[in-house]
Design goal:
Blueprint: E1 3-10, H1 15-32, E2 39-46, E3 49-55, E4 59-60, E5 63-71, H2 76-85, E6 93-96, E7 99-106, E8 109-110, H3 111-124, E9 146-153, E10 156-157, E11 174-175, E12 177-179, E13 188-190, H4 194-203, H5 210-227, E14 231-232, H6 236-243, E15 250-255, H7 265-276, E16 279-282, E17 288-296, H8 305-329, E18 345-347, E19 351-352, H9 353-367, H10 375-384, H11 392-396, H12 403-411, H13 416-424, H14 439-458, H15 472-485, H16 492-501, H17 505-508, H18 513-530, H19 535-542, H20 550-564, H21 567-590, H22 605-626, H23 630-638, H24 641-650, H25 658-678
Helix pairs in contact: 5-6, 7-8, 9-10, 9-14, 10-13, 10-14, 12-13, 13-14, 14-15, 14-16, 15-18, 18-19, 19-20, 20-23, 21-24, 21-25, 22-23, 22-24, 22-25
Length: 686
């Protein structure tokens, strides 16, 4: 089958936008070429180009275009507009009921013509998050000035241009030519296939596949580090960013001046990463090594000596700034900085950082006894937790908040656990970060996130489907991980209620703890889904919970899932649903049927057996649930399966005898009520 290759060659594209641009190009092409049945779609991205290759059919088959048009009595202008839109005539219309319908046979069209027709409009509407205009005479925009379009179908140029109407499209049109490396190659390169395009560019020092550039960077850095007996501090995001800055990666290694080795390793790493895209190195024991690695985009003639010296000089200046901030900050204690927090706004509707600290302190004092943590240390950690926000170092490197506070707390002579808690307060940041395990750190982490969630929800700043600017989903997941991975038994409902009591008066009335509880549980569902656990079981258990104890919910969820995976559990679920459906239908007639079962009206042995078993196991189930013997409770409820099956097989619930009918409906209600002690079975997916 024919292959399609399109390459859009421009001036330098920001690294952060390349990956999404490649995805967008593939998506737009596969959608627009749907009638050509595209397969083997691959995107290629780099500093100066985005490209895509696809395998497609040779032609668009003939087909019938059928579309409903305006009503028959619609104004003439509406009908004429409809015809113009589809390039149709009145002869193509038929009257179908009250509407005109366009029915037209579309002949087959070669893929070359179809592609040439759709590409200009696709490029004019390409969804860059930001784009620019350049030159004159065209409204066409791109992320950076677009210089060249390569478009081949089965080795031949697809003839199209961006010129349309009075727009010159910057004179851009499709060719079979591209360009190699910005510095290591000259002239235009002619290509005739996807494979030859990749090979030709590689010979001219361009690796078109971003994943292969990443791997080349990883291999090169590891080789250099190993030569010095070191290892690279893992940083995949930085590798991907650098891969978007270079076409032909050449890793190099430089030395760090010993006078800067007293800086905290986090300061050094962040300064190197943010300012220069350098990689940190470390010894086998984990200590910071006096070296840094970086990636050049040229092949140096002197083994990189001149480039390395230049980068060492730049890094020396960066570290000198960091050392100045460090020494300046150490002249003040964290505690002396607290008054400044009164003038730092946390959120316009919520108040200052100083007010926030007071709320966190109250929460920490409330939580500490629950975890048997020292209240005085938890209070102190909370009191100093945000003081580093006023430091020069955090002002320069906001990524270091908390970490820097931990260092400064140690310098000030604060208790080790206080300094560690300040350092750990924002962890875990993501799903793979370590989770603090010391009680003081846990208390501060919970207090910080609980305050954040309650205040932002009360201020109406809930996350939407399209965004979460205050990282509230991450905060909720942080609470869940702190609780789960430290096996904490906490009543989250109680904590949220207490946190709400500390809200600013202007926000108290607008806070709904139920909404926030559901938000946290939804985050838990997402986490469980990623772990392969049935989230519908969590929903079923949560619907019956009066308080949110995450560990208890998870234990009940696990026990319920295990029960439903058995034959008895599966059949019990079906029988319970049957009972619920009967009650729902009959309740519309003369319900609800919440009465007490009269044993003297039980006539058949199957209903006698069911009633007797229910009377026997109900107190046992209640006791097992109270004592959190959830698996045992599930076994007992599952033991109803056979008795319930026998009941439905032999007993007619809707008998003509009114008294017998009501008594049997009361029995069904008893069944549903006892299962609801376990979970809301209506939430279980089939």
């Amino acid at each position: 089958m024919p292959e399609l290759l399109i390459e859009l060659f421009s001036e330098e594209i920001p690294s952060s936008m390349q990956k999404q641009a490649g995805k967008d190009l593939l998506r737009l092409l596969t959608e627009a070429l749907d009638m050509l049945h595209p397969t083997h779609a691959v995107a290629y991205t780099g500093p100066r180009r985005i490209a895509a290759s696809l395998i497609v059919d040779a032609e668009v088959p003939s087909h019938t275009l059928s579309e409903r048009g305006p009503r028959k009595n619609a104004p003439a202008q509406a009908l004429e507009g409809f015809l113009r839109k589809h390039d149709a005539t009145h002869e193509d219309l038929i009257l179908q009921g009250e509407f005109w319908r366009l029915e037209r046979q579309i002949p087959s069209l070669s893929a070359r013509c179809h592609i040439a027709n759709i590409l200009p409009n696709l490029l004019y509407h390409f969804p860059w998050p930001k784009s620019m205009r350049w030159g004159t005479g065209s409204s066409f925009t791109w992320i950076r000035p677009l210089r060249r379009i390569l478009c081949l179908f089965d080795g031949q140029i697809i003839p199209f241009s961006l010129t349309r109407n009075n727009d010159n499209g910057h004179g851009l049109h499709a060719t079979n030519q591209t360009e190699g490396h910005h510095f290591l190659s000259t002239g235009l390169l002619t290509v005739n296939s996807v494979e030859q395009w990749k090979q030709t560019l590689r010979k001219h020092y361009v690796i078109v596949d971003s994943d292969k550039r990443c791997q080349a960077i990883i291999d090169g850095l590891n080789r250099l580090a190993s030569y010095h007996g070191l290892s690279i501090v893992p940083d995949m995001k930085l590798i991907e960013e650098v891969a978007g800055l270079v076409e032909w990666p050449v890793p190099l290694i430089g030395k760090i001046d010993p006078i800067f080795m007293n800086l905290p390793p986090e300061v050094m790493q962040v300064s190197m990463r943010i300012n220069q895209r350098y990689f940190a190195l470390r010894y086998a024991d984990g200590h910071t090594a006096p070296y840094f690695a970086f990636v050049a985009n040229i092949i140096p003639s002197d083994e990189g000596k001149l480039i390395i010296k230049g980068n060492e000089r730049v890094l020396r200046a960066r570290f000198a700034d960091a050392q100045h901030f460090w020494n300046l900050d150490l002249k003040q204690t964290l505690e002396s900085r607290l008054p400044v927090l009164e003038h730092i706004t946390f959120h316009a509707r919520i108040g200052s950082q100083g007010e926030r600290v007071r709320r966190i302190v109250r929460l920490a004092k409330f939580i500490a006894p629950m975890l048997h943590a020292p209240v005085d240390l938890c209070e102190r950690a909370a009191y100093l937790s945000k003081a580093d926000l006023s430091t020069s170092m955090v002002g320069e490197f906001p990524e270091l908040q908390g970490i820097i506070g931990g260092y400064y707390a140690t310098h000030d002579g604060e208790h080790t656990h206080v300094a560690q808690a300040i350092r750990d307060q924002y962890t875990p940041h993501g799903p793979t970060d370590h989770v603090p395990s010391h009680h003081v750190s846990i208390v501060l982490g919970l207090a910080d996130r609980l305050d954040m969630l309650t205040t932002f929800f009360a201020a109406g700043e809930k996350p939407s489907g399209s965004g979460d600017p205050f990282a509230l989903r991450r905060a909720a997941l942080g609470i869940i991980r702190l609780i789960r991975e430290n096996t904490l038994r906490l009543n989250l409902t109680q904590l949220l209620t207490y946190a709400a009591e500390n809200l600013p008066a202007s926000l108290c009335k607008s806070f709904d703890s139920t909404v926030l509880s559901q938000f946290i549980i939804e985050r838990l569902r997402v986490q469980l889904r990623s772990e392969g656990i049935r989230h519908d079981c969590l929903t079923a258990v949560f619907n019956n919970a009066t308080d949110i104890d995450i560990l208890q919910l998870l234990n009940r969820t696990q026990a319920l899932q295990e029960m439903l995976e058995t034959e008895d559990g599966s059949n019990l679920l079906a029988a319970t649903r049957r009972a619920t459906n009967i009650l729902t239908i009959e309740s519309k007639n003369d319900g609800p049927h919440h009465g007490t079962v009269n044993p003297s009206l039980l006539q058949q042995k199957e209903e006698h057996a069911l009633f007797t078993q229910l009377e026997h196991i109900t107190p046992e189930i209640k006791l097992a649930l109270h004592e959190e013997r959830f698996t045992e409770a599930m076994h007992k409820i599952a033991s109803l399966r056979q008795t319930l099956d026998n009941f439905f097989s032999a007993v007619t619930v809707n008998t003509s005898d009114v008294h017998l009918r009501l008594n049997r409906l009361y029995l069904l209600h008893h069944i549903v009520k006892i299962t609801q002690l376990i979970a809301d079975f209506s939430q279980i997916e089939r």
